[in-house]
Amino acid sequence: MIGNDIVDLALAKKESNWKRKGFLDKIFTPKEQLLISNAINPEVMVWNLWSRKEAAYKIYNRETGIRGYFPLQLVCCFENEISGTVVCNENTYFTQTIISDEFIHSIAVVKKEYFNEIKTLNSKTKISKTNGIPFIIDEQTKIEKPVSISHHGRFWRGISV
Ligand SMILES: CC(C)(COP(=O)(O)OP(=O)(O)OC[C@H]1O[C@@H](n2cnc3c(N)ncnc32)[C@H](O)[C@@H]1OP(=O)(O)O)[C@@H](O)C(=O)NCCC(=O)NCCS
Q1: What is the pLDDT of residues 51-71, one digit of tens each?
Q2: Residues linked to residue 146 through DSSP beta bridges, in sequence order
Q3: pLDDT category, 150, cuts 50, 70, 90?
Q4: How many Å apart are CA 40 and CA 56, to the nearest integer?
Q5: Which of 14, 24, 29, 92 is the most exposed place for a label (fewest CB within 10 A)?
Q6: What is the number of domains present in the chain?
Q7: Helix (H) or strand (E) run with residue 127 in it
Q8: Domain range holding 65?
């Protein structure tokens, strides 16, 4: 199982004032807030942690069927700028994050080995959805394969394993 999330940093800057009162408390645990306040670039850390949580949520929702908005239950364990885990109600998801000047893209998987198997989808790939959750049909085997897609501002990323 996989999940991904992309943040267009220019759009995030324009649309989301992460410094507004109460925002950080609603989304980030005290430990995560400490990571943000100690970061060289706090804004990038905000979206880094955010994208990890969203990528992990996409797996959590698929696995459990539980939907909702519960950012404080998606707890980031930060190894370094590009890797870590997100724990949600005793489920652990591994994350890898790419940070550029333009975007932040996080991928979450249930097993670390899956990182080596990630394939990037072409934006023209035919993607179907059940209850809003995307999948593709493998052309050779005709078997449904879960995919994860994310779009924000100028960017679109789709992945499968
Ligand atoms: C559903 C949710 C994950 C979508 O994330 P988003 O950043 O708004 O949008 P993205 O572009 O990254 O992802 C949207 C795509 O994810 C897919 N998707 C939607 N719900 C999904 C789910 N529950 N699981 C997996 N994939 C899902 C869809 O294919 C959708 O694409 P579409 O709009 O073309 O159909 C998000 O709105 C949400 O509900 N998050 C809850 C978790 C939380 O508490 N987040 C707080 C901030 S950290």
Answers
A1: 999 999 999 999 999 999 999
A2: 135
A3: very high
A4: 25
A5: 14
A6: 1
A7: none
A8: 2-116
